[in-house]
């Protein structure tokens, strides 16, 4: 049984490709997390007034209320995905501002941003975070499999 949705699978493939092709950029609406999920389209940026905000503006509310989906995601979900990416990349987000960190485009920072996005995508689809490795440190599991501690 496959518990991963088509939108999740497609989004993950696009983000993986962008990360490895160095085409992931939090400062470019076509190359950020949502820009990549939406096939390098930046029309989504018109759904909010502040970069990184999760608050829909009039245009975003119209799309949301009409039930529109963009590659499977609602406007509210898209803004949540982008906010998680920016936070993971070290941005400080507020209701009226988005403060860019000094360093935002090295592989470690982008990977951290992607980890936040994957967690958000999993949350939106109601599945366990596929990036969570905490089970490796769960003592009950170690005992269950008779694993020895180092």
Give an overview of the whole structure.
This protein is an all-alpha fold. The protein has one domain. Helices cover 45% and strands 3% of the residues. It is built from six helices and two strands. It has a two-stranded antiparallel ribbon with strand order 1-2. α1 packs antiparallel against α5 and α4 runs antiparallel to α5. The longest helix is centred in the last third of the chain and has 19 residues. The model has no long low-confidence stretch (mean pLDDT 87).
Biggest sheet descriptor: 2 strands, antiparallel
Amount of beta strand: under 5%
Number of helices: 6
Note the run of SSEs as H and E: HHHHEEHH
Estimate the mean pLDDT confidence.
87
The helix content, as a percent range, equals 40-55%
Record field, number of beta strands: 2
Strand order of the largest sheet: 1-2
What is the alpha-carbon Rg in Å?
17 Å
Q: Which structural category do the helix and sheet elements fall into?
A: mainly alpha
Measure the end-to-end span: 36 Å
The overall number of domains is: 1
Outline: globular
Identify low-pLDDT runs.
none
